[in-house]
Specification:
The radius of gyration is 22 Å and the shape is globular. A hairpin with a 2-residue loop joins strand 3 and strand 4. The protein is of the alpha/beta class. The protein has 13 helices and 18 strands. The strands form three sheets. A ten-stranded mixed beta sheet has the order 9-10-12-11-13-14-15-16-17-18, with helices on both faces. It has a five-stranded antiparallel beta sheet with strand order 4-3-2-1-8, covered by helices on one side. A three-stranded antiparallel beta sheet has the order 5-7-6. The protein has two domains: 102 residues, Arc Repressor Mutant, subunit A; 298 residues, Alpha/Beta hydrolase fold, catalytic domain (Rossmann fold), CATH 3.40.50.1820.
Length: 423
């Protein structure tokens, strides 16, 4: 559904607000408030209803809603005094008063348009590593290959049922023959395994792409899948055409801890996983949900927690986080010789964006794309999701005219910012 009013289009399928044909960058909560007001425009929507609908069970103050309304009016070009589009009813709530037209289809299909919510056929197969670990891998969709490097958490059979990965699978498999796999200790792959290490994860990737019969392909590395993808690309540059990295890093948290307190905090995190991961109460696991989806809805938090519970055992979760924390590819990244795109949300907790920036500065010729989000894994409703998808597809297609909004091109002298015109 697309709602049009004044000089604006509110596109629910692409989660975009466009003004005079140009996308306006707004926070997810601002977008959700606007959708609610437009849908319920025949009445005044109370403040309590807006808070319950947009923030769910999360406690937020009324000032948070006031700030979102202010940001909404700025995005629409609606003067708070004139109130041409959004009317304030003092002591009650807000009402959308602009004239709205509706249409059900977008006139053109673009790289970021969403497909019907139906799963493409998926083939799940198994291969065995040199150290005897059975790995599950899957192929879905049609087109040129794209290999998604395994990252914690995944479950080939369950991913489609969760809002965490469903839109990723749908969109990527529409344009590519998507190859993905569950890493050792996770999902449908063997859980009882002898070795958790970066070296083992790289060998797993080698095993999967050989079993899938791939020759040359791009790699998508998310989070700790990024260092695995980088290491593989350095070892096999003749097989990797492009690297697309999201929320990746060069050094894990233990390796970059600069103070005694930071090291103690990381050890405490390990203990929380060891002692709390297997408990029925999701409180301990939600510490990680909050880091991956700090701007997530209650539904997204619940589904992410269920994915965590299904994907691996408490013992393996403890081994995973310890090994991730000790990753260090600072000596490997400068040897990357393939085109590389590094994307990351600007507002992630724990300075994750600075880690992505460090990684991009180490990879010669890489392009850094900041995303206006706080989420590590981009939900479908996050405006940063279609922006990342569009930038990645343009990069893979080698489109020299692609508008990556704000990028930094890395060279031996360090990052140089190139800001493109924005609305």
């Amino acid at each position: 559904m697309i709602y049009t009013f004044d000089d604006c289009e509110l596109d629910l399928r692409r989660f975009e607000l466009r003004r005079n044909g140009r996308t306006r960058r707004i926070e997810p909560q601002v977008f959700d408030v606007l959708v609610l007001l437009v849908r319920e425009r025949d009445r005044v929507v109370t403040k309590e209803e807006i808070l319950d609908t947009v923030w769910g069970d999360r406690f937020v103050s009324e000032s948070a809603l006031t700030s979102r309304i202010k940001a909404l009016r700025q995005a629409l070009g609606d003067d708070g005094k004139a109130q041409r589009l959004v009317r304030t009813v003092r002591g009650r709530g807000y009402q959308f008063i602009g004239e709205v037209d509706e249409r059900g289809e977008h006139p053109t299909v673009t790289p970021t348009a969403l497909a019907p919510d139906e799963p493409p056929p998926q083939e799940i197969r198994f291969c065995t590593t040199d150290d005897g670990v059975r790995l599950a891998y899957a192929a879905m969709g049609a087109g040129p290959p794209l290999v998604k490097v395994a990252n914690w958490l995944s479950h080939l059979d369950y991913d489609w049922e969760t809002v965490v990965w469903r839109h990723w699978l749908r969109e990527l498999s529409r344009r590519h023959r998507l190859i993905r796999y569950d890493e050792r200790g996770c999902g449908l792959s063997d859980w009882d395994v002898p070795d958790f290490s970066l070296e083992a994860w790289v060998r797993d990737l080698e095993t999967v792409v050989d079993a899938a019969g791939l020759d040359r392909f791009p790699l998508l590395g998310i989070s700790q899948g990024g260092p695995v993808a980088v290491t593989y690309a350095v070892r096999h540059p003749e097989r990797v055409s492009h690297l697309v990295l999201l929320g990746a890093f060069a050094r894990g948290r233990s390796r970059r801890a600069a103070t005694r307190e930071e090291r103690q905090l990381e050890e405490a995190r390990f203990e929380i996983v060891r002692l709390g991961w297997g408990r029925p109460d999701p409180t301990y696991r939600q510490i990680f949900v909050a880091r991956f989806l700090p701007e997530g809805t209650q539904e997204e938090w619940r589904e992410f927690d269920e994915l965590q519970r299904r994907s691996t055992s408490p013992g393996n979760a403890w081994r995973f986080v310890r090994e991730f924390s000790n990753i260090d590819i600072t000596d490997v990244a400068p040897r990357v010789s393939v085109p590389t795109l590094v994307a990351c949300a600007r507002h992630e907790p724990d300075n994750v964006f600075e880690q992505a920036r460090e990684l991009a500065s180490l990879i010669p010729g890489s392009t850094l794309v900041p995303l206006d989000s706080g989420n590590h894994l981009l939900p479908e409703r996050d405006p940063a999701w279609p922006r990342f998808l569009g930038a990645a597809e343009a990069f893979l297609a080698g489109d020299p005219a692609a508008d990556l909004t704000t990028v930094e091109h890395q060279d031996a002298a360090g990052p140089t910012a190139h800001a493109k015109p924005r609305d």
